[in-house]
Structures are given as structure tokens and as C-alpha cells.
Write a structure and sequence with these properties.
The chain is an alpha+beta fold and 878 residues long. 19% of the residues lie in helices and 19% in strands. It contains 18 helices and 42 strands. Helix 7 (445-452) packs parallel to helix 10 (532-538) and helix 16 runs antiparallel to helix 17.
């Protein structure tokens, strides 16, 4: 369980994987009149152009307003003594913070040497989080020469790794203990010739408890462990003990910010009241300590960065946190949402604005299978508003109406630090970036297929029989690559530096993938299957370098040992290979694929683990545990990280995870951002037989010509059957939709705004959503809309043509085009066919309303999907 959601949503236990639902899809073209299609296409092109540029500018302004740069020249009190006098560090965000990642980038440092043995390294940075201001004897903040507050080193979360150069305490050389360290040092003057001086910088937690092994120069028995305690351990601390720079003195690092929810010792974001009576979050500090080649009295870096001779060179940035917890008025009605995890981060941002308006509601999102949520919303009066990216087939969800509320995507996150081979043939510029992170990575659909099918050797448990993928361990020979970074298929499309690396790890042999069923999983498989090379590989054909798919994942039944081909696309990511590595002597249990590479709880967990460098690798067998079990290996620290994960664009932005550029149907490698998501929205086509729903179909002709489109872009729809819910609930759901497609589409980091990782929805999507909101609440659109609600009682007349006939066809769930319309593949984004549903007794008497079928009608995508099994939903209290 990862409690890293800033107190507003909590990961529960993992969803159990279920049998895949089967759903086929066929592409249908838009049905428009020729004239309307042309005009709408022009209009949408203009709309998308604006939507693709303006939101990007808004996001840049928002981020820049919170970006802070600090330099040694600004903050060092004696620049001549600074180990890196030209150091300049930029922090990507310093306001409206929560449990998330931030990026630090810097220049003016010096070429780093990685740590080794008992040496912490050379010319590197240490980065950590502190909570308190340095106070004077009068209890007031001590100001520096520029009049700024300063952090108190006793409030820093530091020392959890207890590695050389990164411990909180240590032995000193006589005569090297600075005056500032003396209260926390024994034998500071070396008066006792039989005892070396020892310094231990205490940790003063935000809870009021202090761990202080040395007080006023005297050791305190049983004072507590400064490396592992109730506030932080090696597994929970967020400190970066080594962050390196290249030969040009520049570098970049991702840092995990922790709130009081993750670290009670820091207490950042704890709700408090400022001088105006406003509720704010407790602030914290981000501290950067440059470490040169040696410590005072030492030949190398071996002592703590909190000791005064290192601490005095620090740079510090103050951080403003949002108050953690749900900030809603007591007594507000609670309304439930269920389904798509892709909307979770946006809902968290929207929640405070939604619940604090007059008559506002608290919206609680329970994430789980979207198809389950839609089925429940269509059949039960007690079901929540469903959030989904794909509709139910028309025959199963005839009563549902869909309002587009978000534009997001699925992506591959990575944290891979360079590890050049120790060979003379490795270029000097590659060697100079040892232990520094790779910042770009390209993936094709076939490479994604390889990562999802345990086809690389390192994706399978060490010691297992690998002959089924054509590899003989004894001979160390075979045609399947060890991992992604050694695959000629990968090297052919990526930077040349990759071919000089020496990685052996399951962390770069497959993806951290979420368990359970989702629209995101189906979209990934559809992306893979749309590519001829990937389809051929999955069917069992070797790639040009001889690599074959793990046969247990083969879609060709004749090549799959199970006798059945893997059914694709699907809503989950199966670990289909039943392989087991034999247990070791001493009773160690066999290791299967799930044990070897466990699922993540969800997409957000994938981003979080990537930020922390945790590839979920299996540890050693512990026979003394009750019961005996395998342990989990520790996460890799900065400089040696090797993680690939499947996540979503909003989580990747929240945790500042680097993401791969994916080859789209037009043959272009595109990264996910607001512009590429918007370009994908312009290339979306209708979902077969489902009114008002579009998606990015990688097999469509429009997708194949959209060079700037991100191929795993996904819309999120709010859907309900208004005939199943009461009028009060309908009004609440309508209010939710109107807010999120209005003020909720303003990009920014403040409450109520659209978080990074989402693109503002196109204007026509917003119009469509408002029309649906009117239908949900009133049974009729507002006068300004052109997509009327058609009561069941009004659907009389001939179905062969005319207004009455069109209304009858819509009410019956037909996907027939309006009379006189012609099929067209042009993407207009215009409002789709009329919304369907019947009048309920709670509705006001609006009379029989005519059906006005808009000129631009979405046809849709049809498939056969049995009613899915209901999976357990995990509550996200936003």
C-alpha cells in the first residue's frame, strides 16, 4: 500500500486480476452531410489549433511563476570558500505543492565521480527536505545577510541510507570539529587520547519529538537511531545522497516531495491558519548541499552533509504546500463517482472548488474497471456516476449518455541511469556521463509488445529454464535479448549512447504494470495491434534480429503451448507464462512470474515507484521469517536506477517522471504533452454505434496522417442513465459536469484547476458535455444547444425518415445516419447524434420535444463484450 496521495486519496489493497472481457471493435466513419462536414472540419481545425497552443502557454506561465533559481553567489556568505561558486540550481515548482515530484536542474557544478566502497564520491550534490526555520535564542527566525529565513539542519530528513558521506553522525579527526557542531559532539577537543571525537546531528521532528544521541557534548544512552527510526528509514526517506553532474557541470534530478502523510517527521502541508485566518499548509525547505572532493580532515567525502563544514555551503529553497486533507464544508452531500483512474488526479484538484460552492457536493471517486462502472450506472439506481474512456457496446448501454470531461493519456515512464561498459571502445563523452540519467527513450509498438510479454531473458526468473524463448543457459546462447537496452530493435531507433551500456536487470526487461482491468490496458493493446510488425511478432514470427515472442503470449494458437492463442485486445496485462525457477537449498519457495515481477496497485503507483528508483525486484529468501518468505530488494539510489513503468500522463507529471516517445501511426516518435494530446483529440473518430463518444483509433486513416498526435491519448467521459437516478442526484451530476468542463479546464496547480498531464478539452467537447448535463438534469438541453433529449413518449412515427423517424431511431439506440447524410471520414469534433433516454416521474413536465438531429453525427464503434464481472473498487476520497 502506498500512502502517497497527499491525504486526499488512498491506495487500498491491489485489485485482483480477473478473466479478461472480450470486446471486438470496428471502425465506423463519421456520418455527415458533405457541406456540413467540410465546414465543421475547418472549424475544428481552427479550434484545435487554438486549444493546442493557448493551454500550452497557460501551463508554461503557471509553471514559470512557481519556478525558483538559487545560486551560490546569492546565498553563500563567503563565496571565495564555496566549493562550487558558480553553482546555479533551478527548482521546477515551489508553490501549491503536495506529495509529488519536482525537477532540479543545475549548471556551474563540477564533473562528478560516483560513490564506491567507503567513499561517497566527488563533486556531487546532496538534496533533501527540511521542515523548520533556524531560530535564535529569542525564538525568532535568524535571517541571512539578505534578510531571508534559513533552514534548521536539525529538522532535515537526512541520514536514512547511512552510507559514506550521507550519515547523520560520524567519527571526526581531532581539531576538525567546528564550533557550530560542538553541542552535538563528544571529545570535540580531543582531550581524551583514547577516544576519537564523534558528532551526531540530532533530528527534531515536526511532532515535537527529538532523537539526540549527543546533548551538550555528552552521549545520551538509548537516545534512538539516527539512521532508522519512527520518522524515516532507508525504505521511506526521500533524500538524494548523490546527484551527479556531467563534464560541463550540468545535471538534473527528480526529487520526491513528502507531506505529513508520508513523513510525520517533516509535517509539510499540515493544515494551519495564517495571520489572516486562511487555512494554509505548513511550509518546508528544499536544501542542496554541494560536496567537493574531500571533507575537512579527510582525504575523501566520508562525513555527513549536515556537519558544519559541508552545511555552510548549502543552497535552500522555501516550499509552499497545499493544506493536506479534504477541505470541504461539513454537511455537504456526498456523491460518488466510479471507474477511470485516469481522472483521479483531476478530480482531486477539482474537489475543493466543487464542494465549497453553495449547495456543492463532495465527489468520492472509487477507481476500478470502467466497464463494470458503466454497467452498474446503466442498470442500478444506486450506482455512482461512471467515468470511462470507452463506452459499453450500444446494445448493452442503450440508456447511457456520455459527457467528455478530460483529455489525458497512458505513457511509459522511465528512470535509467547510465552505466557504460568498462571498455576502451566506449567514447569519452559516454564515459563522462556515467551514473547520470538518460533523458530520452523511444519505443515502437513492437518494443512495447516485447516489454508486455516477458520476451526478454531478464524478465524471467533467474535460474529458470529459458529454452522456450530459444535460450540455453549453459551455452549462454540464444536469440532473445537480455533486456530492452541490449535489443538491436531498440538500439536501431535510440541514441547511440545506449549501445555502450552494461545493464542486466529485470527493471529494464519489462514494465511495471497495474493489475486489474481497465480502458487504459485495452488502449495499449490496440496501439500495439495496429502495427503490422508488432502483430507479426505477437503471432510468433521472429523480428529481423531473430527475437521471438514468449510463446505463452503468442496470439497464434499453434505456437502457444496452452493450445489457445492469447486473445487481444484485452482489458488487462496477463502474466501468462507459468514458468517457475526452482527454490534454493534451505526451503526457498519456487519463483513464478508474479513473484518475480509483481503487479503495481495502479498506474499512479508505477510513476511513484519510478520516481523512487524502485523496480520491485525480488530479494533474498528469509528462512527466519514467520512464515518464511522472500524479501523485497531495496530500491536503487540515484546514479544506479533501472526502472520502466506503465503509468498515465497526469501521474507522470505529478511525480516528474521522464516518459518515452512513442511511434505513432503516422511514423513519428511523439512524447505526451498538452500539444500532442490535443493533436490526438483532433484525430479521434467515433466509437461504433455509441452517440457522442470518440476515441483515438490507430488503424484509422486520420490517425495515420496525424504526425503530431500522441498515440495513447484517451478521453474520459462521465456517463449515467438518468432514468435510474433521482432528480437531486441528476442535478448534482450535472453541476459536476458543468464545472469540470468550464473552470475546471483552466490549466494550473491551484485547487479547482486542471493539473499538469491533462490537456484542456476542445471547445466542442465542452459544448457537448454541457448539453449532456442539461439532459441529465432536466431531460432537455438548454435553448442554446442543438442536441435535444428525446422522451420515450415522443418517439412515434415512421423510422424510415423525417424528424419523427430520426427521433425514433435515436430513442431505440440506432446508429443510423440522419436522412440524407453521407458517410465521411473527416474528423469534425462536432456534437454527435441526439442523446437518448426516457422521462422519469421526477422530471418537470416539459412536453413532447422534437428531435433535431445535428448535421454532424458521430457514428460509433461496436463490439461484443459480455457483461463484465464486478471487481472490487478502491475508494479514492478526493
Amino acid at each position: 500500500m502506498y500512502n502517497h496521495l497527499d491525504g486526499q486519496a488512498h491506495h487500498g489493497p491491489g485489485r485482483a486480476a480477473s478473466e479478461p472481457a472480450r470486446r471486438g471493435r470496428r471502425l465506423r466513419s463519421w456520418a455527415l452531410s458533405a457541406l456540413s462536414g467540410t465546414l465543421c472540419a475547418v472549424a475544428v481545425f481552427a479550434t484545435v489549433s487554438v486549444a493546442g497552443i493557448a493551454p500550452s502557454s497557460a501551463r508554461a506561465d503557471d509553471v514559470l511563476s512557481s519556478t525558483v533559481t538559487v545560486t551560490s553567489k546569492q546565498q553563500h556568505p563567503a563565496l571565495a570558500d564555496a566549493p562550487m561558486p558558480d553553482l546555479s540550481v533551478t527548482v521546477s515548482q515551489t508553490r501549491d505543492l503536495g506529495a509529488q515530484g519536482v525537477q532540479l536542474s543545475w549548471t556551474g557544478a563540477k564533473k562528478s565521480t560516483p560513490p564506491s566502497g567507503q567513499i561517497g564520491g566527488e563533486n556531487f550534490l546532496q538534496i533533501f527536505q527540511c521542515w523548520g526555520d533556524l531560530l535564535g535564542s529569542d525564538g525568532k527566525p535568524v535571517l541571512d545577510d539578505a534578510g531571508n529565513r534559513q533552514p534548521d539542519r536539525t529538522t532535515c530528513q537526512y541520514g536514512g541510507f547511512n552510507t559514506p558521506g550521507a550519515a547523520r553522525d560520524g567519527v571526526r579527526e581531532p581539531g576538525t570539529v567546528a564550533e557550530e557542531d560542538r553541542p552535538w559532539s563528544t571529545n570535540a577537543d580531543g582531550d581524551d587520547p583514547f577516544a576519537a571525537p564523534v558528532t551526531a546531528v540530532p533530528f527534531r521532528s515536526a511532532t515535537g519529538k527529538t532523537i539526540a544521541p549527543i546533548v551538550d557534548g555528552k552521549a545520551v544512552p538509548d537516545a534512538g537511531n539516527l539512521a532508522s527510526n519512527e520518522f524515516y528509514t532507508a525504505k521511506t526517506t526521500n533524500e538524494i545522497s548523490w546527484a551527479g553532474s556531467g563534464a560541463d557541470g550540468s545535471g538534473v534530478a527528480k526529487f520526491e516531495l513528502q507531506t505529513a502523510m508520508q513523513s510525520t517527521g517533516l509535517g509539510c502541508g499540515t493544515a494551519t491558519t495564517d495571520s489572516t485566518g486562511k487555512t494554509v499548509g505548513a511550509g518546508c525547505w528544499l536544501v542542496i548541499v554541494p560536496r567537493p572532493k574531500n571533507d575537512v580532515g579527510q582525504a575523501h567525502i566520508t562525513s555527513s552533509g549536515l556537519f558544519w563544514d559541508a552545511w555552510k555551503h548549502r543552497l535552500a529553497v522555501h516550499l509552499d504546500f497545499k493544506p493536506i486533507g479534504v477541505r470541504c464544508a461539513f454537511g455537504a452531500a456526498e456523491r460518488q463517482l466510479s471507474g477511470s483512474e485516469l481522472a483521479a488526479i483531476a478530480v482531486r484538484s477539482w474537489q475543493p472548488s466543487l464542494c465549497n460552492t453553495k449547495g456543492g457536493s463532495i465527489y468520492s471517486l472509487l477507481t476500478g474497471s470502467e466497464s463494470d462502472a458503466l454497467t452498474a450506472a446503466n442498470t442500478s439506481s444506486a450506482a455512482p456516476l461512471a467515468l470511462a474512456s470507452e463506452p459499453l457496446p450500444a446494445e448493452q448501454g442503450a440508456g447511457l449518455v456520455y459527457a467528455p470531461i478530460a483529455l489525458t493519456g497512458v505513457t511509459v515512464g522511465f528512470a535509467i541511469d547510465q552505466n557504460p561498459l568498462p571498455l576502451d571502445t566506449v567514447p569519452a563523452d559516454v564515459k563522462n556521463r556515467a551514473a547520470l540519467p538518460f533523458e530520452s527513450l523511444k519505443l515502437t509498438p513492437r518494443l512495447v509488445a516485447k516489454l508486455l510479454t516477458a520476451s526478454y531473458r531478464d524478465a524471467l526468473p533467474y535460474g529458470a529454464d529459458l529454452s522456450h524463448i530459444g535460450y540455453k543457459i549453459a551455452a549462454n546462447a540464444g536469440h532473445n535479448a537480455a533486456n530492452l537496452t541490449t535489443d538491436p530493435d531498440f538500439l536501431a531507433v535510440n541514441d547511440s549512447a545506449w549501445k555502450y551500456q552494461g545493464f542486466r536487470s529485470p527493471g529494464v526487461a519489462d514494465l511495471l504494470i497495474p493489475q486489474g482491468r481497465s480502458d487504459a490496458a485495452r488502449a495499449v493493446w490496440q496501439y500495439v495491434l495496429a502495427d503490422a510488425d508488432a502483430r507479426s511478432f505477437l503471432a510468433g514470427e521472429a523480428d529481423p534480429w531473430g527475437m521471438i515472442v514468449n510463446p505463452w503470449y503468442a496470439t497464434d494458437a499453434a505456437k502457444n503451448p496452452s493450445g489457445f492463442g492469447l486473445t487481444l485486445p484485452r482489458e488487462d496485462f496477463p502474466k501468462a507464462d507459468p514458468i517457475e525457477a526452482p527454490g534454493e537449498a534451505g526451503g526457498a519457495a519456487p519463483v513464478n512470474l508474479v513473484t518475480w515481477r509483481p503487479y503495481t496497485n495502479d498506474l499512479e503507483s508505477g510513476a511513484y515507484l519510478t520516481l523512487r528508483g524502485d523496480n520491485q525486484q525480488l530479494g533474498s529468501w528469509d528462512p527466519l521469517s514467520l512464515p518464511p518468505k522472500y524479501t523485497k530488494a531495496g530500491r536503487d539510489l540515484a546514479g544506479s536506477q533501472k526502472v520502466l513503468s506503465l503509468t498515465d500522463t497526469s501521474s507522470a507529471q505529478r511525480y516528474q517522471v521522464l516518459t518515452a516517445s512513442l511511434k505513432n501511426p503516422a511514423g513519428t516518435f511523439v512524447a505526451a504533452d498538452a500539444r500532442s494530446l490535443t493533436a490526438a483529440a483532433a484525430a479521434m473518430t467515433s466509437a461504433d454505434k455509441v452517440d457522442g463518444v470518440v476515441h483515438f483509433d490507430p488503424t484509422s486513416e486520420v490517425a495515420k496522417s496525424a504526425t503530431d498526435a500522441y498515440p495513447l491519448a484517451l478521453p474520459v467521459y462521465a456517463a449515467t442513465n438518468r432514468d435510474k437516478i433521482d432528480q437531486q442526484t441528476r442535478a448534482a451530476y450535472a453541476s459536476f459536469i458543468r464545472f469540470v468542463v468550464g473552470d475546471g479546464q483552466t490549466a494550473g496547480s491551484e485547487d479547482g484547476q486542471l493539473p499538469a498531464g491533462y490537456a484542456p478539452i476542445p471547445a466542442d467537447w465542452g459544448n457537448r458535455a454541457r448539453a449532456v448535463a442539461d439532459v441529465i438534469e432536466n431531460g432537455a438541453p438548454s435553448p442554446a444547444t442543438s442536441t435535444p433529449y428525446v422522451p420515450a413518449a415522443a418517439t412515434t412515427g415512421s423510422a424510415s425518415g423525417g424528424a419523427a423517424g430520426s427521433a425514433q431511431a435515436v430513442a431505440a439506440g440506432s446508429s443510423s445516419s440522419p436522412a440524407g447524410a453521407t458517410a465521411s471520414s473527416a474528423v469534425t469534433g462536432a456534437s454527435a447524434a441526439p442523446l437518448a433516454g426516457g422521462k422519469t416521474p421526477d422530471d418537470p413536465d416539459t412536453g413532447a420535444m422534437a428531435a433535431a438531429v445535428p448535421a454532424s453525427a458521430l457514428a460509433g464503434l461496436v463490439g461484443a463484450l459480455g457483461v463484465p464481472l464486478i471487481t472490487r473498487l478502491r475508494r479514492r476520497l478526493t
